[in-house]
Amino acid sequence: MTHAYSYGAVPLDSGVTRFRLWAPSAPSGLALEVEGHPPIPLRPGADGYTQVDVDCPPGSRYHYRLDANTVIPDPASRLQEGDVHGDSIVVAPGAYRWRHPDWTGRPWEETVIYEVHAGLAGGYAGLIGRLPELAATGITMLELMPIADFPGERNWGYDGVLPYAPDTAYGKPEDLKRLIDTAHGLGMGVMLDVVYNHFGPDGNFLSQYAAPFFRDDIDTPWGAAIDFREPAVSAFFKENALYWLTEYRFDGLRLDAVHAIAGHEWLHELAHFVRDGVSAERNVHLVVENDDNRASLLRGDFEAQWNDDAHHVLHHLLTGEDRGYYADYSVEPAQALARCLSEGWLYQGQPSAYRGGQPRGEPSADLPPTAFVLFLQNHDQTGNRARGERLTALVDSPQRLRAAVALQLLSPQIPLIFMGEERGARAPFLYFTSHTNAALAQAVRDGRQREFAAFPEFSGDTPATQVPDPNDPATYQASAPWRDDPDSAEWLRDYTALLQLRARLIAPRLAGAVSLGAAAVGDRSVFARWELADGARLTVYTNLGPRLQTVPESLKPGPDVYATLLYESPAGGRDRLEHGELCPDCTVWLLEEPA
Asked: Is 292 a catalytic residue?
């Protein structure tokens, strides 16, 4: 299935390349400059678009000229020479020969996500080498952090400015396709994290020739809001989503911070556009990150949302931290966790003290458990800490962390594992950049320090109070998680065992699963139960505290109910439960098969 793109350089069957640019506010000197050709003056039409066909093959370098001193890349460049300020390159979309063209993806209920930074994994080629172990562990969906071209060689990816161009710091476009192809051959899907709420601070020139791309009435943390009401802007991002799903055969997209997109109606439009543009037999999955907790997005258009509420209450229970947004989850945390397990979110319209009493969220109890992506760590929650500590460094009881992992991986919600978790990684995940503009690098450095200045441990001007410099290559190098720690093999064994259980006994009957309720058992303990699609009942008891917890008679496994022990951490937890006791730092999963 092919699509006629509104933007970019697209080779045609006739042998020419069609160049299209939306430039409604371009200066009169606008021109296209293709290597081997004289400059081609361009004059946008009434709709703001300019189009020209040029006799040039794939591989040709080109750029647009705004005036005598300003040349810019194609905003829909498929590939850059060098970096974001270099020339754009014409790319032949069908050059790669897929080895698994019949792959149609996996049902969402089978999803186990592995979030990874391609650069830290050794680029696309290095990540290919890690796929067999991930597949054997039980990962079914690789999720790449953003790869849209960004300035320099090191970046989380959220400073991207050319959304159609995969950054060459990780490899060539064909290397990316080979990664996806190889994953498909191992039975794994691949998702891409895309950023549609802003452009990075270096290398975006849209305001100089397409001023209507941005609104003048709404500001975001990154500047003027993108104007999705404008048809050409809407098309730019809708077609970008379709481009990744069809040309690169990604199996899904994770949309970053959609609460920063003005007007959620555009998100519904995007979902419909994508569904209509992808072959019906493919399993393509759309996921959002949304601080607004809008359940309405998850009733047909998007499969799931990252469950920040569940993360925050689990993080508080594991670490005791209650500063910043964790304060909202430190009051009656067991009740909060019970609500997250049974209904998805804690905040479903009630006021948030951290947000100044503003109401947050929509009712979510009617949604299936698979509408929520459950994680203990991810790039945000680890890397947005000043020193990027992982839970292996923050949780003082390793057994408590193991109990939380057991809760996460067998929950009917969709689990997400952050790279290295499966090996108990201790390396931090720090915020890193590689801005070549010295003033911008200093501004990022200073901003990062100010962000944490309110915390006593980062106030003052001593070496001990300094946040790691994002632009220092050592910050990036320190973040690689694939070092063997003493207990790496033990962690990997546990993750593999849990995910094998999930694949065999839970995932096949998640479609149609419903919550049967949850309750706090104590101040740090919960009970939750679900009915699976075939009538089986899945029950969990979790105690994330250091003290033995008495289980009320009404919540104990009944003597007349035969429930198989699915998993316990630590050993002996089920026996204690039979006597009405939930041992410290413990998770017990039971499965009652249908009669």
From this structure: no
